[in-house]
Write the structure tokens for this entry.
Amino acid sequence: MSTYETMSFHLETERLILRPWAEPDAAEFCSLLSERGNGTPTVEHTRTAIVKLLTATETTGIALLPIQRRDEGDFIGYCGLIIGRSTVEEPEIAYELFQRAHGRGYAAEAASAVLDAAIATGRKRLWSTVGAWNIPSFRVLKKLGFERDHVSTDDSGEVVWLTRSLP
């Protein structure tokens, strides 16, 4: 049994809604993942990934949530807490947006809401791991008060680990 409160799975900001995954998200999630340049996953593969995310949420009490713009109602990416390279006690904040949504402050807005949700769970620290090339993500994390901790490498190259203590 976790000593942490369950994360809120419905978050709202001035411009965004973060909510649980739904079946119709699979096609949009598939399109988002294809923007990475590693090929296009099948919608069925993406549906399976969503089921895994939902199962992990049940087990951990934290979630990666789809982001939709409040006024337009469109899916623009995801943001949330994951175990990733870390632990359930000190999870990672993760986000990814369609390229068409870059440069508008959506990542910082969504991540700020997730940061508040993480604080509400009673956690004391979060991590983020970012490819060394990803300057825009470093800007978002700096705005949120994350600080560089160390660097490691994986199959994709250098990974920068950042951390933020929570109140």
